[in-house]
Design brief:
The chain has 180 residues and is mainly α. The chain has 6 helices and 2 strands. The protein has a two-stranded antiparallel sheet with strand order 1-2. Strand 1 and strand 2 form a beta hairpin. The longest helix has 35 residues.
Length: 180
């Protein structure tokens, strides 16, 4: 189950980077949307995300069962565990809003819903929760793949994720300005 979670998490990160960068270009009006390959990549992202969420929930359930057996949780020592679960829940909740914002059907045609200041705020919070969740999970993911937590890849991955999420946030901001 852990291997499934690690592989699906890495796949989600790779596909999410593509989705965020492509989506930012579309929202900025630099690139036309509606192409087939990005739609397929988004479908693959959703599948990988569902697998990741299910495996994470099952792994969390096993951990919580073990805690109940022992009777001691040690909140201070398990702060990362709690933070990862809370940030993951935030990502899922904001993802629902994200999907509802960019997906609508009217008379059989797909369209984007109105993007106002509330939606901009939700989009920025979505980007922040995504970045926080991914940054919290870099070390465990690298350890799971046998690379260790002291590898220089940790800083490189964090920098790439931060720049990509900043670019996505800028895409949302430009998109909001275009709606004005």
């Amino acid at each position: 189950m852990r291997r499934t979670n690690q592989i699906s998490g890495a796949l989600v990160i790779i596909l999410l980077l593509f989705h965020a960068i492509y989506g930012a270009f579309v929202m900025m009006g630099i690139y036309a949307g509606g192409r087939m390959i990005p739609k397929i990549m988004t479908a693959l992202l959703i599948i990988a995300l569902v697998v990741h969420v299910i495996s994470a929930v099952l792994l969390s359930r096993y951990t919580i069962k073990a805690v109940r057996k022992t009777g001691a949780f040690y909140l201070k020592q398990n702060l990362r565990f709690v933070a990862v679960r809370i940030s993951g829940l935030c990502v899922v909740l904001f993802l629902i809003d994200h999907a509802m914002l960019f997906y609508g059907i009217h008379d059989g045609a797909y369209f984007l819903n109105v993007f106002d200041i509330k939606e901009l705020g939700m989009a920025i919070l979505f980007v922040i929760s995504l970045l926080m969740h991914m940054l919290l999970n870099i070390s465990p993911m690298l350890m799971g793949f046998g690379l260790g937590i002291k590898t220089p890849l940790k800083g490189d991955i964090a920098a790439i994720l931060s720049v990509a999420m900043l670019f996505a946030a800028m895409g949302f901001l430009v998109y909001y300005i275009r709606w004005l």
